Amino acid sequence: MGVCVTNIARTPESVVEGYQGAEVATIHEAQGRKGLLASYMKPIYTGVKIAGNAITVEVAPGDNWMLHVAVEQCQPGDILVVSPSSPCEDGYFGDLLATSLKARGVRGLIMDAGVRDTATLKEMGFPVWSKTVFAQGCVKETVGNVNIPIVCAGQLVNPGDLIVADEDGVVCVRRQEAEKVLETANKRTANEEAKRARFEAGELGLDIYNMRERLAAEGLVYVDQKDY
Amino acid sequence: MGVCVTNIARTPESVVEGYQGAEVATIHEAQGRKGLLASYMKPIYTGVKIAGNAITVEVAPGDNWMLHVAVEQCQPGDILVVSPSSPCEDGYFGDLLATSLKARGVRGLIMDAGVRDTATLKEMGFPVWSKTVFAQGCVKETVGNVNIPIVCAGQLVNPGDLIVADEDGVVCVRRQEAEKVLETANKRTANEEAKRARFEAGELGLDIYNMRERLAAEGLVYVDQKDY
Amino acid sequence: MGVCVTNIARTPESVVEGYQGAEVATIHEAQGRKGLLASYMKPIYTGVKIAGNAITVEVAPGDNWMLHVAVEQCQPGDILVVSPSSPCEDGYFGDLLATSLKARGVRGLIMDAGVRDTATLKEMGFPVWSKTVFAQGCVKETVGNVNIPIVCAGQLVNPGDLIVADEDGVVCVRRQEAEKVLETANKRTANEEAKRARFEAGELGLDIYNMRERLAAEGLVYVDQKDY
Amino acid sequence: MGVCVTNIARTPESVVEGYQGAEVATIHEAQGRKGLLASYMKPIYTGVKIAGNAITVEVAPGDNWMLHVAVEQCQPGDILVVSPSSPCEDGYFGDLLATSLKARGVRGLIMDAGVRDTATLKEMGFPVWSKTVFAQGCVKETVGNVNIPIVCAGQLVNPGDLIVADEDGVVCVRRQEAEKVLETANKRTANEEAKRARFEAGELGLDIYNMRERLAAEGLVYVDQKDY
Amino acid sequence: MGVCVTNIARTPESVVEGYQGAEVATIHEAQGRKGLLASYMKPIYTGVKIAGNAITVEVAPGDNWMLHVAVEQCQPGDILVVSPSSPCEDGYFGDLLATSLKARGVRGLIMDAGVRDTATLKEMGFPVWSKTVFAQGCVKETVGNVNIPIVCAGQLVNPGDLIVADEDGVVCVRRQEAEKVLETANKRTANEEAKRARFEAGELGLDIYNMRERLAAEGLVYVDQKDY
Amino acid sequence: MGVCVTNIARTPESVVEGYQGAEVATIHEAQGRKGLLASYMKPIYTGVKIAGNAITVEVAPGDNWMLHVAVEQCQPGDILVVSPSSPCEDGYFGDLLATSLKARGVRGLIMDAGVRDTATLKEMGFPVWSKTVFAQGCVKETVGNVNIPIVCAGQLVNPGDLIVADEDGVVCVRRQEAEKVLETANKRTANEEAKRARFEAGELGLDIYNMRERLAAEGLVYVDQKDY
Predict the structure, then answer these.
(1) Of D28, D41, E115, F56, which is least packed with CB atoms within 10 Å of its CB?
(2) Which H or E run includes A180?
(3) Three-class SS of residue E33?
(4) pLDDT digits (tens, 9 = 90+) for D95-128
(5) What would the 3-class secondary structure string for chain F be?
(6) What is the SS3 assignment for C213?
(7) What are the start-end ranges of the E strands in chain E?
(8) H or E element: which one contains A163?
(9) pLDDT at residue A1 tops 90
(10) What ipTM describes this predicted complex?
């Protein structure tokens, strides 16, 4: 038994586009330090950043059958987010599935398991964040679920949530909060730019953030090494 | 006590050459999903692929003495496959040993432990797949074995077996099966090319592989999100 | 309560400079196979090598407040070495702190935890060796220590010790031993160059290092495969 | 900023009681193989089994302040379920907090981090399932959340969900499904008892489950070793 | 496609019995420090030791179908040794299968994956060494192999090889070497008893093993702390 | 080359004795949350607690020769603390060495690697905290160091430092601070006893520690679930 939920609500593309200018670290801060997938999720090649709507897939260990079901649910601008029902490193995904997703306008894959054909995926320009790279093939025997809420790399992801991934990792933003979070993230980015100029000019964080007094209050003392 | 087996039988170079066109993932499928080394075996630099005959080496933890014994057994087209007798991350291998192997026409190293001098190895163009990179040096005190069957990264490797390694990992093919597996792999590659064209044209795996009926039989149901 | 030790003794720049020509693996050998940080310390991008004086920082888990205190203690040629008081993967460090350190002439960061903004750090050319990359933000609530002896990635590091890092990892040299170790390392490098020429010419380690007799004494026997 | 949700809906005690007779493995099967927390969650001592309503707590890394907030929300029959906002092994919990929880009738703790004072916890008879045992203390500086949905050890847990833990691990049952799942679990347990008698009598699973024909259809062949 | 090899050759029970008095550590030494399974293989309860003939099983990840095939091949005195074709932690084995094996006189299970129902297994007195304990259930969809050579926890195990397991772990002895290894192990045990008496009497290993001269030759020096 | 430092300064037994009443968690807090060895250091059996002076040993990977050198340096009340120069899981220690140490009045072993003969060690009542249990034997070829400062499981340990180990783990106290830390630990224990009585009586930590105001100031809000 399994279910494939169709016609899911998505984050509007106008909002998604705005996320192209925001970094994963900033977005995570902007929504109150939440939504980050585990640090073991790594890009298979660097120099890429994607933002899009989550199509969620729950698969059995060593079984990638449901990926084919999920492909049909994808629209341009989507990102496939896949999680096995128990920990697995097998290679669920390779260049043929990537070709199929690319033909539908999908922007990338977030896979809490292994992927393969990585040299070809890089050539094709199909970005993937995964737990590992492993050539181990999968069977197609057990039905799973598409577009139900899943836990992927320690984070709850609902279908239609916004996914942003860059070299620092992957963050999930609730669809309902995507607009507000973007606004906060953009302010944060602007604020960081201002700070950067001051740091470049040699100002210290101790002064910029006015930390000295509070550090002393918390008990920080300075001692010359010759007196230590 | 240790043994170094000489004059081992090898896979004929005519067969080995054929493997240059086949990928690790495809070869592993072609031989019935077996022979893959563990996913922690990673190339120290990308963009390389090698195929060759295994010279096997069993070493003591933190002791790389036997590598020098093994070098003498190598012929052009060989690949050194090394496994410690208990788990170890030390740097068994660096640029001097690589220079020696390269002088003998060896194509690369598969090391279930650490290696070092990786920047130089990349410059030299000597490919290595290893468990980790670690500068820790080794002693030369304990005798091991060369060209006996070993377990490397979870996989049995016999001397003279065929080793293929690319960005997806490392696969071992039994010497006796190398010709047949290549044939199957080539057919598989050809078949994948045909499939790729259909995926590029937007056909779905659900239809190409005729999956819909069986999915329904296994209980997959489609539900519109507004009814879920 | 915490302490920031000021005016620490440093390795003279004349000595530090000399280390630019020595590799981590060689330095570690030159000082008797000691001083290597754990193999999980990886550069966030390749093709870099740094040498400099350690400014040490002990931070609370998930709390990067003390990094700002440490920045003020940095001089040109220093390297920041950071260790959490219990294991943590959070992203303690990003592009703003890197901008601040760069403005002070700091050469890089050694972080036994996570870092973020790695794409920008690479663009800026600010080298980092870390346990992982993770966008997870930190708080600024708990005081730690600057320039006390710390254990970083399994290795004791004193303020003012010499740190060298390249693609093979990170090594720490005691300030008091830095001059002598460099001398030994340079001899070792020269010796390796001589050896390399012989290996390139096809000589075997078995003969260069005169190993055959001792191997036989330790019980190594050669057996033709047909007799095995 | 943080929130503590009060007066949460709970699974009725009449249902919770029924779970005392069901095993974690059986419950997980009964609800369609879902709800299991990661296998690294281990009991600090064996010979215990608990069932109760989840009080959920999200804490900052290395900061156990919110546990005190959570204690006040606990009622007899509850189980505290705690997850740090990023991975952490620190000892969030010891005998004083256990004394406080015990005084309120709480049945145990599920901690996706470290705990300490384990010898005393065993003496007190306060059961804990945790990621590790670690004496490392926590600060009380950062506000988190109580009784919001959290991801604990890879599994979504809502406040008021049913938690069952035994030597095999921890399973979470949605509050709304708790009654139905118990019914299925009880049937499954009864069915297993019947099967057990047949296995004890020497019948084979091949016959009890009528597997022989399907195995042959899937290609299983029997070969005598002398012909293999 | 899969194969079940029948009528395998076994180690004679007269030899197997002899192993009841030998420890895993001693056996491993007696056969030249080989045959040990990885250190992550732990008993689910302590105070047990088993010795018997290996019935080997290769299973698909998350699929325990072949265990039922294997049960039929078991005879009194056998030990089931199971390895998944790619790494997996799922609970392949529980009390019903244990009941079936016990009814056939099987002495225990070596499982390079997860097991469940551990409280019941302990009650039943059915010993298991496994990679982990995890309640996650398996499917029965994919055929594997019985009684072919497998790699289990990093070690090659042939059907009919001798398996010995105690609190220190699991060791595999080749069937053909079982008699000779036992003899060596027994001598070793006797020798250790003699040594033990000398250690109890306060003699030092330095003297018993005559180490002082060789230590000095290798460069060991003694320095009083006040001169260090 | 290696050194064995003799006649080391020790913590006076009068102080060591006082630590029998203090727990590892309390001692770690009493000295400002420092000194804890990594959480992977586990007792091989439960129900024990030891305190004593550190005899430190640095060994090569897979080489336990120096343990015999160290034994001679031990006095009644000492604890052996061993660390390999690179990570290793081999079984450095078994019942014969334990017999030798016991004969000298040594209280236990702290081993940042593997140990074996654990069933016998438990019978003998010789307590060990180790990284793992592994039967893998060691060679005796490489000289290391005794009674120099070492890093063991992430913590600096000097010879003569005080080691305390219980079920929560292992803590190291500097010899020079041992008396003062004990005093603080004892006060802390007394204070905890007072707190325990209040918790048992049902008082809340929120009130005992007067947290409510500060929590509100930090932004904690209470919301009834029906309004959330």
Answers:
(1) D41
(2) helix A178-200
(3) coil
(4) 999 999 999 999 999 999 999 999 999 999 999 9
(5) CEEEEECCCCCCHHHHHHHHHCCHHHHHHHCCCCCECCCCCEECCCCCCEEEEEEEEEECCCECHHHHHHHHHCCCCEEEEEEECCCECCECCCHHHHHHHHHCCCCEEEEEEEECCHHHHHHHCCCEEEEEECCCCCECCCCCEECCCEEECCEEECCCCEEEEECCEEEEECHHHHHHHHHHHHHHHHHHHHHHHHHHCCCCHHHHCCCHHHHHHCCEEEEEHHHC
(6) helix
(7) 2-6, 42-43, 50-59, 78-84, 108-115, 128-133, 145-146, 150-152, 155-157, 162-166, 169-173, 220-224
(8) strand A162-166
(9) no
(10) 0.95
How far apart, in whole angstroms, are the C-alpha atoms of residue D105 and residue A131? 41
Cα–Cα separations (whole angstroms), residue A78 to A13, A73, A104, B196, E92: 10, 9, 9, 21, 36
What confidence score (pLDDT) does residue A5 get? 98
Tokens for D67? Answer: 């546990």
pLDDT average, residue stretch E125-152: 97
User: Is this model's pTM higher than 0.80 or not?
Assistant: yes
- Chain E neighbours (≥3 Cβ pairs under 8 A) are A, B, D, F
Amino acid of residue E193: E
Q: Which of D168, D170, D173, D227 should we substitute to test contact with E (largest number of E Cβ atoms within 10 Å)?
A: D168
Q: Which residue in the set D71, D114, D118 is minimally distant from F205, CB to CB?
A: D71
Closest CA to B108 of B77, B142, B83: B77
Q: Token match 């894959």: residue?
A: A109
Residue C19 has pLDDT above 90, yes or no: yes
Q: A3, A56, A85: which to substitute to probe chain D, counting the most D Cβ within 10 Å?
A: A85
Chain C nearest CA to A164, separation (Å): 12
Residue with tokens 């079920």: F167
- Half-sphere exposure of A95 toward its Cβ, with a 13 Å CA cutoff? 20
Query: What was the pLDDT predicted at F65?
Result: 98
Chains that touch D (3 or more CB pairs under 8 A): A, C, E, F
Mutate: best of B1, B86, B143, partner F, most F CBs <10 A: B86
Task: Give buried/exposed letters for E161-186 (b at 16+ CB in 10 A, else e).
Answer: bbbbbbbbbbbbbbbebbeebbebbb
C87 at the D interface (CB within 8 A)? yes
Nearest CB to E62; choose among A86, A89, A136:
A86
Task: Read off the tokens for D23.
Answer: 């095993």
Chains near C (3 or more Cβ pairs under 8 Å): A, B, D, F
Query: Is residue A102 within 8 Å of A127, Cβ to Cβ?
Result: no
Rounded distance between C-alpha atoms, residue A72 and residue A34, angstroms: 30
Q: How many CA atoms lie within 13 A of E42 on its CB side?
A: 13
Rounded Cα distance, C15 and A142, in Å: 64
